[in-house]
Amino acid sequence: MATSVIDGPEVGSAAPRRTSGSRVLVIVISCIVLLIIGFGLSLSIGTAAISFGAALSAVFLGGSTPADLIVRAIRLPRALLSMLVGANMSVGGVIMQGITANPIAAPEILGVSAGAAMVVVAALVAFPTMGGLPLVAAAIVGGAVIGLIVLLLAGAGTGRTSNVRLALAGVTIAALVTSLTQAFIIFNDNTADNVFFWLVGGVNFAKATDVWTLLPWTVIGMVAAMALASSLNLLGLGEDMARGLGAKVERTRVLGGVVIVGMTGAAVAVAGPITFLGLVTPHIVRKLAATTNHFVIIPLSALMGSTLLLWADIGSRFVRWPFESPTGVVTAVIGAPFFIMLARRQKVSG
Amino acid sequence: MTTTTPRRSTAAALDSADARRSTRHWTVPLVLVAISLVLSVVTLGIGTAGIGVGDAVGMLVGATDPGKTHIMLQFLSPRVILCWLVGIGLAVSGSVLQGVIRNPLAAPDIIGITKGAGVGAMLMLLWFPMAPTGAIPVAAFVGGLLAALLVYVFAYRRGTSPVRLALVGIAVSALCEAIIRLLIVRNPPDVNAALIWLTGSLFGRSMSDVWQFLPWVVVLVPLIVLYARRLDVLGLGDDLAAGLGEPVERTRRLVLLLAVALASASVAVAGTVGFIGLIAPHIARSLVGGRHLALLPSSAAVGVTLMLVSDAIGRGLIPPTEIPVGLVTAFIGGPYFLYLLAKLARSTTSGR
């Protein structure tokens, strides 16, 4: 990089289409407004109806009425966790789509989420008290191994990987891994609710410790993702072009993979394999912001992913009121039609 | 296979190739059927207290006591018969799909049919709990058909391309899965039964299930075999097939319809048993080659063998707990599928 005449980051930021700043600003502001409204609703909606004002006072002024305790112990962690998980999954999706140059790539489609979930379930079967960092580590290992298997089996690196084969391999292996997860659960004789939680994922039973477990991964992941942004921009020009401009394509891919499994694995360890967020958010962002610049896409995806999952979580409370339904059910129902649309749009050669 | 001159002589060439290999074409499925028959008897008693292989053999010659015979006839033989029927249904359907879509990874469970049929059957169960049991396969068929139609419509752009069919199939499959999960979440009392059914299980099936499912297999499988020749022609590629005078799109539609019906009926009776429709055709192809007249019976026989072995393992591994057969097929089929993918990744011709 140092010896190169053309400096990487400058080329990276100049090459993509020019972003209209006001457009991005509008998106950011509307996302933040929606996020704040969603946050308030998330605190006040539930089996115990708590007014907006009471919820806010519980968070900011403290207090020890039952309502205050419910808000602080149950609803606040839940709202925060859904925001963190949303950001993690979405940024994971952005990078995945960037390094594979494949619009239908996402952690959940290429098996990373399913792999992480399987190892988490297996770990919990073996060591029921496991939690925190060891569990996250287990999830990351699982996600990395399954993701690598998918890439290898789809023929990545041979120059013959097609979008479709990657998706087919990923989905099938995800199905297999999910079967294994189910088997672990059956042997462990768990209740159906737990089964569902681990098959579709949700932030329903969030605890404050989950938030603290996830937070460092989100922060580090975001920093690392931003550090990769210029390389991802170069890669977006096409592999040959990127190489020609002196980009280290392999290094970008490996580092991107590390960020993906770190962010996704941590999210899955606390919230289960919530689907479709990583696939959908980057597309919405790219479409709305009309940009291919990762310096914009990555933070915007994090913001929008947070907003989406926060609202999906609110929606999940109404699926079977007054009982809890896993958040992943809502994201799947919303995201699947989107997936169909993307699949239809695929340019197919031959 | 190398003698595919695009002329009227193709049929003749295929015929002579047929004659040369006919011995193998018929011995392979026959041997497999023989193995399946033996397996049927041997696995009959597995997992049930007090009934062994000896009893099952004894029943055939009429030497077992009436009590055990009753149990075997009443509770165990329907399962074995269903293993046969489901194995045939899924494997034949899978062979047809792989032939039509020309994608080695195509299978009813991957391109949306299985999940669509699941949605249909579940809606029937939830909305009309009092409906006669014969209605469930019909609902599953409607669901599978709708899913397949959805796939076809969304993949259609001046004709369908095999690749886009497969991809849209995955997406539609995901949609159906989402709907199934939503249904399960909204109807909690049925969660456990629904989960087991979704994994695919033959637990508690009776002769009435057999009678319900039998007509679908008996009617559809011969119809598909009638189309074996034309499937071969489709396998040559759209352009070549059209050049040979084959109405490509029409044949594809018709054969897909038959395959959908067969897979849907299988799902209605056994739940979403995975991987059989995917791997049975591959195993069969490696044994007898890609000609459908030979492939279809061999594939069916492989499917039956796989189902029998899987169900026996499911019953016998940790009795009295029963592992749903769908989980076992996933365990057996998954690694084979991985091997298959690795092989495909190495080969250079199937990059798409």
Structure, explained:
The complex is a heterodimer of chains A (350) and B (352). Chain A is an all-alpha fold and 350 residues long. Chain A has helices spanning 8-14, 21-44, 52-61, 66-100, 112-126, 132-153, 163-188, 192-200, 208-235, 239-244, 249-271, 277-289, 294-319, 327-345. The longest helix of chain A is centred in the first third of the chain and has 35 residues, at 66-100. The radius of gyration of chain A is 20 Å and the shape is globular. The two termini of chain A are 38 Å apart. Chain B is mostly helical. Chain B contains 14 helices and no strands. Chain B has helices spanning 9-43, 53-60, 66-101, 113-127, 135-155, 162-186, 191-199, 207-226, 228-234, 238-243, 248-270, 276-288, 292-316, 325-346. In chain B, helix 1 (9-43) runs parallel beside helix 13, helix 3 (66-101) packs parallel to helix 8 (207-226) and helix 8 (207-226) runs antiparallel to helix 11 (248-270). Chain B is globular. Mean pLDDT of chain B is 79; it is low at 1-9 and 348-352. Chains A and B meet through helix 6, helix 7, helix 8 and helix 14 of A and helix 5, helix 6, helix 7 and helix 14 of B.
